[in-house]
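Final report, closing paragraph on structural work. Over the funding period we assembled a curated collection of sequence-structure pairs, and we close with a single example.
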Amino acid sequence: MKKVTFAGDPVTLPDVEIKVGDRAPDFVVMDKDMSPVKLADFAGTVRILSIVPSVDTGVCAIQTRRFNEDANAIADRKVLTVSVDLPFALGRWCAAEGLDNIIALSDHKDLSVGEAYGVTMKEHRLLTRAVFVIDSTGMVVYAEYVPEVTDHPDYDAALIAAKHAK
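Its predicted structure, as stored:
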C-alpha cells in the first residue's frame, strides 16, 4: 500500500491505490466557471492527470507550469490538473501565469478525484501529489503517488508514458 508524507509527517489516504493496468475511475470536478467536468468528457484521448495540493504553492506551481509547457510537445493529449483550490481561484491563477495548455479543475466540493484515486490527505483536506496517465481506452498506463508531497513527480517518466500511450 502507498505511504505518503507531508513535510516528513505521515498522512492518511483513502484505502484505494490505482495501478498500471487498472481502469481509470471516473470523477466529477468543476472547471473555472464552476461547470461540472468528468474524466469521461475526455474519452478517446490520452490524459495526463496531474494532481497537486494547491497550484499556489512552490512545487505545485512548478508542476503545473511544467505540464503546461510539455503539453505542447504531446499532440492530441489532454493535461488535467486537479487540486482543491476554488474554481475561480484556479482560473485567475492560470490566467495570471499565462497557462493555457492545461485544463485546471477543482475537486474542492466533493473530493471526487481524491476519494476515487486515493489521494485525499485526511489530516489537511488537500490532495496529495500524484500523476496518472490514462490511455484513450480509459486504462491507466502510468501511476505515481509521490512519496513526499513536497517533492516533484517524475516528469520525464509521465511524459514518456503519455507520448507512447494509444
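The chain has four helices and eleven strands. The mean pLDDT is 95. We thank the funder for supporting this effort.
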